[in-house]
Every structure is written in C-alpha cells, then in structure tokens.
C-alpha cells in the first residue's frame, strides 16, 4: 500500500480557537481531493483510477488527516500512479505560490479548486499544511502564499487579451478529423496539459496524414504531438494551430500486424514462388 498524504488544518487564531468550522474543514479536504483527481485525469490516459480514503485522523490540536490512495479496481496496482499524481500536485501548488498562473496538469476544473485552498486561509483558516510522501516538498498554504496567488489571479484577470503566435508543438489525444467550412482538413484533439479541445488546421504533410485518419477510426484516442504555428487569444489561451506535421507518440488503438496480415494473400506460395510468379 502507498504511503499516505498528511493534511493539517488550522483555524484562524482570531476566533480564539484552532478548531476549524465544519464548512472550512470539509471544504478544504474536498477541494484538495478534487485537485488530486483532476491532476490524475490530466496526467494519465485512462481517467481516474484512484480512490482517496481517510485512513487516520489525529484528535490532537491541530486536526490532521491521512489520505491514502486505493485502487478502484482491487486487482490493480496504483502506487506508481499515485506517486506521479502526488508529485504533479505538489509541484503545481508550490508553483501557484511562486506566481505561476497555470501549473502543468492544472486544468480548468483543477485551477479553481486549487485557488480555493489558498482563499480559505484568508477567511476562516490560519493555514493548511500538506505533507506528501516520498520526500516531496511540503506545501504550506498560508496567508503569505494566499496573497501571492490572489495577486497573480487578479493580474491574469485584468491582463489585456493580446493575441500572439509562436512556433512550437502541442501534445494531446486525437478526438476527430473533419473538413471545416472552407474545405480545409482539420484535426481536433484534447490538449494533454489542460484537457481543452484544440483545433489544428492541417498544412503540408499534415494534410496527407489527416486524410488517412478520415478513412476510419483507427486513431481514436491516440496520443500525438502537433507541430506548427500556435495561435493564442491571450497568454496561455490557445485559439488554434496551423499544423505542419503530426507525430504519433502512443500507437495504442492503431491496427497491429494481426489486423493487416492476410494469410491467404499469396495462396499458400512461399515468398520466392510468389515473386517469381509475378515476374513471369
């Protein structure tokens, strides 16, 4: 069994006690678990496979809880998966404290939950301490960190939406291929970092690749990397991509040898006999 995460919740000392209200306590635990689940969905390809269970509660002051990852499928082994989720969550919460607007794997569903963890320490809670296993850095959600997160979010909200573009690549999961209203081949894929649906307009070699995908569903769910010019509506907000090339990273879902080999193709002839017959 994987080692647990320890969560310590302290109430604001202005209340005269370090006992948090029910709403603050349950809200903090619920939002933290939602962050873990959301990061797992963004990080892995098969959705959420981990149940986070409360395996220990300390009645000493302050209150502390231990959250342990369990596999939803009892036959599965999720220790390494949980370690990846814990690392990405720890690094993401610390990045928010440093002023990063959107850490990796903090999707549109995860980011508000993470902000809420910091917001509560400005109204009701004194702080929340999260101790991850495996030597990961401790996360202190306190008023100093909350102030930094609040300032970053306000700056992001007031920042002018200035469109720009850059050369690069995006990684994601194939959704569908089609023609747009102008007759151009278009690829839709889910961005691996924030799970947003991205439109990629094909150019050059990518056109031929997309034409092949429109012949069937063999690319459904395949992980790929799209190279080209990335157009942004604002910092971090992707509008679309002019795709020049597609690279398949994970070929799961593509046909294998057993799907394309025809044992009767040469009518029982050996390779040499079949080639000689063609030449003759």
Plain-language structure description:
Helices cover 32% and strands 32% of the residues. It is of the alpha+beta class. The chain has two domains: 5-158, no CATH class; 164-259, Nucleic acid-binding proteins (OB fold (Dihydrolipoamide Acetyltransferase, E2P), Beta Barrel). The strands form two sheets. The chain has a five-stranded antiparallel beta sheet. It has a five-stranded mixed β-barrel with strand order 6-7-8-10-9. Helix 1 (22-43) crosses helix 2 and helix 1 (22-43) runs antiparallel to helix 3. The longest helix has 22 residues, at 22-43. The mean pLDDT is 83.
Question: Topology, please?
Answer:
Blueprint: E1 5-11, H1 22-43, E2 50-58, E3 63-71, H2 79-97, H3 110-119, E4 125-131, E5 139-141, H4 143-158, E6 164-179, E7 185-191, E8 197-202, H5 205-213, E9 223-234, E10 237-250, H6 257-260, H7 271-279
Parallel strand pairs: 8-10
Antiparallel strand pairs: 1-3, 1-4, 2-3, 4-5, 6-7, 6-9, 7-8, 9-10
Helix pairs in contact: 1-2, 1-3
């Amino acid at each position: 069994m994987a080692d647990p995460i320890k969560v310590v919740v302290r109430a604001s000392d202005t209340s005269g006690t370090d006992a948090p209200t029910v709403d603050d306590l349950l809200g903090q635990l619920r939002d933290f678990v939602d962050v873990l689940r959301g990061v797992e969905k963004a990080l892995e390809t098969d959705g959420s496979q981990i149940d986070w269970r409360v395996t220990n509660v300390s009645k000493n002051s302050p209150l502390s809880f231990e959250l342990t990852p369990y596999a939803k499928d009892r036959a599965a082994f999720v220790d390494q998966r949980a370690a990846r989720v814990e690392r990405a969550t720890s690094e993401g919460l610390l990045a928010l404290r440093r002023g990063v607007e959107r850490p990796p794997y903090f999707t549109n569903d995860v980011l508000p939950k993470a902000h809420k963890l910091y917001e509560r320490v400005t109204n009701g809670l004194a702080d929340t301490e999260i101790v991850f296993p495996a030597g990961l850095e401790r996360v202190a959600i306190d008023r100093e960190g909350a102030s930094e997160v609040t300032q970053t979010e306000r700056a992001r909200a007031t920042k002018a939406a200035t469109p720009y573009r850059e050369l690069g690549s995006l990684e994601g999961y194939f959704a569908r291929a089609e023609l747009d209203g102008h007759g151009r081949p278009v690829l839709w894929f889910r961005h691996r970092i924030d799970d947003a649906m991205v439109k990629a307009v094909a150019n050059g070699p990518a056109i031929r690749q997309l034409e092949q995908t429109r012949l069937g569903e063999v690319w459904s769910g395949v992980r790929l990397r799209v190279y080209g010019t990335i157009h942004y509506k604002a910092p971090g907000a992707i509008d679309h991509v002019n795709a020049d090339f597609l690279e398949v990273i994970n070929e799961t879902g593509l046909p294998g040898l057993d799907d394309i080999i025809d044992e009767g193709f040469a009518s029982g002839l050996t390779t040499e006999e079949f080639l000689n017959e063609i030449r003759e």
